[in-house]
C-alpha cells in the first residue's frame, strides 16, 4: 500500500483526445516520465522532427465513452521488437504506443493530444543519432505569433 501511494505522489490528472474528438481519454501521469524521441520511426509516424510521450501505466489510463476506439498498427523496430501504434480511426491522430500481446502494459501517450501538454516538459530524449541537425537552430528562424 505504501509503494502504491509513493508511485502516485508526483501524478497529475490529464485528459485529452484526438483532433476530431472521436477518441477521448484521461489518465494519472507523472510529469517526470516525459521523453522526447528522435528516432526515424517517430519522425515518420508523427510527420514531424520528433515525438514527445508521457508514459503511464495501463491501470492509470481510461478511455472515455466516445464515438470510437483507436485503430492499432504493429510496427517492428530496428531491434526487432514490435510496438503497437494507435491512431484515431477518423482523423488519424496518433494517440499512443504500447507493447503487443497480453500482460502488463505501459502506454506512451502522445503529449500533444493532452490538454495539459504545456505542463508536460520532456525530461529526457532518445535516439540522438537520428536527431535533425537544424533543431538546435529553431530560435534563429524568423516567426510570427499567428498565421
Distance between the termini: 51 Å
Alpha-carbon Rg, integer: 16 Å
Q: Would you count the extended β strands for me?
A: 10
What form results from the Cα inertia axes? globular
Average pLDDT rating: 91
Helix content: under 10%
Low-confidence stretches: 1-6
Structural class: mainly beta
Strand order of the largest sheet: 6-7-8-9-4-3-10
Short description:
The protein is mainly beta. It is built from 2 helices and 10 strands; from the N terminus they run αβββαβββββββ. A hairpin with a 6-residue loop joins β7 and β8.
What do you see in this structure?
This protein is mainly beta and 147 residues long. The chain has helices at residues 2-8, 40-46; strands at 12-17, 24-29, 34-37, 51-57, 61-63, 71-76, 82-87, 94-98, 106-110, 124-126. A hairpin with a 6-residue loop joins strand 7 and strand 8 (94-98). The longest helix has 7 residues, at 2-8. Residues 1-6 have low confidence and may be disordered.
Keywords:
mainly beta, 7-stranded mixed sheet, 10% helix, 35% strand, globular, disordered N terminus
Task: Describe the protein's topology.
Blueprint: H1 2-8, E1 12-17, E2 24-29, E3 34-37, H2 40-46, E4 51-57, E5 61-63, E6 71-76, E7 82-87, E8 94-98, E9 106-110, E10 124-126
Parallel strand pairs: 3-10
Antiparallel strand pairs: 1-2, 2-5, 3-4, 4-9, 6-7, 7-8, 8-9
